[in-house]
Design brief:
Strand content: 5-15%
Distance between the termini: 51 Å
Radius of gyration: 27 Å
Low-confidence stretches: 1-6, 202-222, 233-248
Number of strands: 12
Mean pLDDT: 77
Oligomer: single chain
Number of helices: 20
Shape: globular
């Protein structure tokens, strides 16, 4: 302890004072952002500032900061914490923290930091400071010429497709990193304790000086109390969540996943509101916010759900699974109360649902198709099919590799077969492209009784090849990657075929 002015100052007093100063620095930084960009008000109010040990972190609920680290930054320049807070807000608005399984963490983290920093440097140049700005500008300008708009999803797809080296990914992370991303990923989220919330993000002083009552209502600040009450309800742990020791581990994981998806929907709505406000009230020519609008348009646009597309090939059948929707618990409970341990009705043991049983996946392995792209497409298809709701206990899926002729054909009968195939998958071919041998092979399989209830064919290709002249008597879909075509160009398919164009990030991003 030390003595200042006759008063005894303990380490605990110092920590309290540091926490108070850091809280004020965060409030001032957020106030600076809102003073220059009022459209971020709803985004700010959705986050709770939380002191923690580290540097910075943000998970869509909390803006976490280390008081000592933040004050060191503030001492260097009062504009540095403004930059840091704006960087994390960008992560939230673009939902960078909403990750899935199967992504390359180093590439995703680098893509997110570059995308966030590109927006910060464009719209925050007048009121926040940046470090190594020249080096960052060079990288952003180089990537902007190849990836448009410069979003994390498109950057990640570009990094994966160009097979960015691990060393280069680490260099980019070191250059652009501002906050810790470990809480974004499932394994880290499972290990970390949920932080406790503290005070609201915007201080009373900032609120009073932020504008008139009408302006507050228009910008969303008038909804602060409602937002905060909703947030507190959402952030509180759910009562009655199953305990892992009682066999509820799977349900707990499902609950956590749904909670994360719901949080992502809330941020999507906030993001769309920001986009709408920029489009309606910020149309001055030459403003840098136009680039933010373009990025928001790309992230918020309606996407074709590949999972829903695969349901075209599902058939209706019964599986041994409890069906609570068709079971009236009232009669069940009444029977127990009337006869003791005898129920009037029992819950059904089978559930009727639409699941995948018989269909074919064909892969174009010609020289014009990237092997890495094919692997990512198969991995995405695998992740969808391995969901519990996708499979009957016995299936009949045929995976065919073909260039000018069928190079490989594998029959998948169960989950383990599909898992083994994906794990040991080896592309064969790399010649020209001809789609007709696949249809001939399918006709032979049907003739031999291998495919008695074929629902359809998914053909992943770049579209450069010869199609059959006559339509088959089953559904056929040709799947393409957007980067193989101009934005306004449509790949040619026969009139009887379904055309599906997936954006690069939809194939490479496993969120």
């Amino acid at each position: 302890m030390s003595y200042l002015g006759g008063d005894t100052v303990t380490d605990q007093d110092k920590q309290i004072k540091l926490a108070e100063l850091a809280e004020k620095a965060v409030s001032l930084s957020i106030g600076t952002i809102l003073l220059n960009m009022r459209f971020f008000a709803r985004a700010v109010n959705r986050l709770s500032p939380v002191p923690y040990s580290g540097s910075y972190a943000c998970d869509g609920k909390h803006l976490m900061y280390d008081p000592e680290y933040l004050l060191r930054r503030y001492r260097q320049s009062e504009r540095l914490p403004v930059h840091d807070c704006l960087h994390m807000l960008m992560h939230c608005v673009f939902r960078h923290w909403h990750t899935g399984q199967g992504i390359d963490r180093a590439l995703w983290d680098a893509a997110c930091d570059i995308a966030a920093e590109a927006q910060v440097m464009r719209i925050g140049a007048g009121f926040c400071s940046n470090e190594r700005e020249t080096d960052k500008k060079e990288v952003i300008e180089e990537l902007s010429s190849k990836v448009r708009p410069l979003t994390a999803e498109k950057l990640y797809a570009y990094f994966v497709k160009s097979e960015l080296s691990e060393e280069r990914a680490e260099e980019l992370c070191a250059l652009f990193n501002t906050d810790d991303h470990s809480r974004w990923h499932k394994d880290e989220r499972d290990r970390e304790k949920e932080p406790e919330e503290t005070t609201p993000m915007i201080s009373p002083e900032v609120r009073e000086n932020d504008g008139s009552e009408n302006d507050d209502r228009d910008s969303g600040i008038g909804d602060d109390e409602t937002d905060r009450e909703d947030q507190q309800k959402e952030d509180q742990p759910e009562q009655g969540t199953p305990d892992a020791d009682s066999g509820g581990a799977d349900l707990s994981e499902e609950f956590a996943r749904r909670e994360l998806d719901e949080l992502a929907k809330q941020w999507e709505q906030i993001s769309k509101e920001i986009q709408s406000e920029l489009e309606n009230f910020d149309r001055q020519p030459g403003k840098d916010s136009r680039l933010l609008t373009q990025a928001l348009e790309d992230v918020n646009r309606e996407r074709y759900d590949y999972r829903e597309f695969l349901r075209r090939f599902a058939v209706t059948g019964e599986v041994m699974r409890c069906d609570p929707d068709s079971f009236d618990t009232g009669f069940y409970c009444y029977g127990l109360s009337l006869y003791g341990n005898v129920a009037l009705v029992e819950p059904p043991e089978y559930k009727e649902t639409s699941l995948i049983r018989d269909f074919v996946i064909a892969i174009d392995t010609s020289g014009s198709v990237s092997g890495r792209t094919v692997q990512c497409f198969m991995q995405k298809t695998y992740n969808i099919l391995m969901c519990e709701e996708s499979f009957f206990s016995k299936i009949n899926v045929h995976i065919i590799q073909c260039d000018t002729e069928v190079r490989d054909a594998v029959k998948i009968s169960c989950r383990s077969d599909l898992e083994k195939y994906i794990r040991t998958m080896e592309l064969k071919g790399l010649g020209g492209t001809d789609f007709r041998p696949v249809f001939d092979h399918i006709a032979e399989l049907r003739k031999n009784g291998e495919l008695t209830a074929l629902r359809g064919l998914i053909y992943f290709t770049d579209g450069i090849g010869s199609f059959p002249e006559l339509p088959p008597d089953y559904q056929c879909a040709f799947v393409f990657i957007r980067s193989d075509y101009d934005r306004n160009e449509q790949p040619a398919v026969p009139p009887w075929a379904i055309r599906l164009i997936l954006e690069d990030e939809e194939v490479f991003d496993e969120r």
